[in-house]
Automatic annotation (TrEMBL):
Keywords: Cell membrane, Membrane, Transmembrane, Transmembrane helix, Transport. It is found in: Cell membrane. It comes from the Bacteria. Its main location: membrane. Coiled coil: none annotated. The lineage of its organism: Bacteria, Pseudomonadati, Pseudomonadota, Gammaproteobacteria, Pseudomonadales. This is ABC transporter permease. InterPro entries: MetI-like_sf. It is a multi-pass membrane protein. The chain crosses the membrane at residues 58-84, 214-232, 239-256, 297-322, 334-355, 361-381, 423-443, 455-476.
Length: 488
């Protein structure tokens, strides 16, 4: 078995995660975590849907930010996809998508303040890079034969619209719908930095111990995600897109002097701003790297590797919950409900909830990342097993799992897992805002101390780290000949 490259690779990553556990801050520090956990579940079972007059407004603004951000990101991403073959464009898209939406929000808050433009750009910019990458891959896979059948002299734009787009339309539409679901999750967590979306009210309820209020917000969010096929219809999309900007709210007016000062003064390294030049810049960078960047990078990598392996284990354990080859319809329905809830809840919200219940450590973050990403991969693998036809005399029970199904889906499982690797690292970095010592902790601390120059350097390091992990993941997928699956 060790002769298989996929098995050796899996064992290497498992060993790295086990070593990481030796250095990780894994602990439950709350005084009575089980009581708090019980109170939380009691709050979910007894939701208070009439707790806040602004709850429905927050839900509406969550949807509005998602629609506007995804629409702008989709349009820009499609235009970038047309020229994605050029290296500078690919580098630019990789950079903007490597920075998490919350980091973009923290940047724009410094000069736009609590204005709707902050939330829209925080979603639209990274989504533009994501859309550009995925759209370009979809367009490249289009059948070239219809284009060859066009009469000579046909304009390039006409050829593109009448040959490639119809062939790719179903994939483009499916991925855009999936990205809208992601946009709703991104929009919800923007409330944790003060924007008037669902996360703002969720954080307020938890901080005040009002678990029934928080349970109501979570249930409404799950219903919103689960009913997307019912209320997002093609004929209604133009109405949603045109109407969404009017429900973003007004916010505070933009002070354009703050915008100018941010780019001309705030983000300039303080030694250069103070006239010390390169002689002062090097010690400044040395202090930044030694005390903030390197500890943040180390903790981000350790937590990422632990969460990656935990994600894989949870995915392998959870896909039988919805597989037709195990259990009956009642068990599969319960499995679907569990996986829908786990994958619909943003990692940031999961980590925030667990942090309130268990106390500050890497444990809430690792569990949140594993639950969310494991549920996504488990759902995809479970659906894949439903397309597999077994022999009539195939083994049953645990042997069916280990000898029949896992070997058949393992390569797809690894492809999904290594595709999520970069996404897990993005989330790991941003979870530092909750108090975990990843790069996001030091970014948030620098912003709190009005040291925007240090914050921008740390955000740049975060982006480069994510780009590096993405490149390494693609290299491993190529070496193992794993199919790239961008729809997860």
């Amino acid at each position: 078995m060790l002769s298989y490259p996929t098995v050796r690779t899996s064992l290497i990553f498992l060993a790295i995660a086990l070593v990481g556990l030796l250095f990780a801050d894994i602990a439950i520090t709350a005084n009575n975590p089980w009581r708090d956990l019980g109170n939380f579940f009691l709050g979910v079972l007894t939701p208070n849907f009439f707790s806040s007059e602004g709850l429905l407004t927050a839900l509406l603004r969550t949807v509005a930010f998602a629609f506007v951000g995804v629409t702008v990101g989709g349009i820009c991403g499609f235009l970038l996809a047309l020229i994605y073959r050029f290296l500078p464009v690919r580098i630019f898209c990789a950079f903007i998508r490597a920075i998490h939406e919350l980091f973009w929000a923290l940047i724009f808050l410094q000069f736009f303040g609590f204005h709707p433009l902050t939330g829209v750009l925080a979603i639209a910019i990274p989504y533009s890079g994501i859309f550009a990458k995925v759209y370009s891959e979809i367009l490249e896979e289009a059948d070239p034969e219809p284009g060859r059948l066009l009469p000579p002299g046909t304009r390039t734009i006409a050829a593109f619209l009448y040959t490639k787009i119809p062939d790719c339309w179903a994939q483009l539409r499916t991925y855009t719908a999936y990205r809208l679901e992601c946009g709703l999750r991104s929009s919800a967590i923007l409330g944790f930095v003060g924007l008037p979306t669902l996360g703002f009210y969720l954080e307020t309820s938890f901080s005040q111990g009002m678990y029934s209020d928080a349970g109501a917000m979570l249930i409404l969010f799950y219903v919103l995600i689960a009913t997307i096929p019912l209320w997002v219809r093609p004929k209604l999309l133009p109405i949603y897109v045109l109407g969404a900007p009017f429900f973003l709210g007004d916010g505070l007016p933009i002070v354009w002097g703050n915008v100018e000062r941010f780019f001309t003064e705030d983000i300039i390294p303080s030694p250069i701003r103070d006239g010390e030049g390169l002689a002062g810049l090097m010690p400044w960078l040395g202090d930044l790297f030694a005390n903030e960047a390197l500890p943040g990078i180390w903790n981000t990598i350790v937590l990422t590797q632990i969460a990656l392996v935990a994600t894989g284990i949870l995915a392998l354990l959870s896909f039988p919950l919805i597989s037709n080859h195990f259990g009956g319809p009642i068990r599969r329905t319960a499995g679907h409900v569990f996986l829908v809830i786990a994958r619909s809840t943003p990692e940031y919200i999961l980590a925030y909830i667990l942090l309130q219940l268990w106390g500050p450590s890497m444990l809430p973050a690792a569990v949140a990342l594993a639950l969310h990403n494991g549920a996504i991969i488990g759902h995809l693998i479970g659906r894949q097993t439903n397309t597999i036809t077994l022999r009539s005399d195939a083994v049953t029970g645990f042997k069916r799992y280990t000898w029949e199904l896992v070997p058949r889906v393992y390569r797809s499982f690894l492809a999904f897992l290594f595709y999520r690797w970069e996404i897990i690292m993005r989330e790991t970095a941003i979870l530092g805002i909750l108090g975990i010592y990843t790069l996001g902790f030091y970014v948030d601390s620098a912003i709190q101390h009005i040291q925007f120059d240090r914050a921008m350097v740390l955000i740049l390091i975060t982006a480069l780290l994510n780009i590096g992990v993405d490149a390494l993941g693609r290299f491993i997928r190529r070496k193992l000949a794993l199919q790239t699956m961008p729809t997860c």
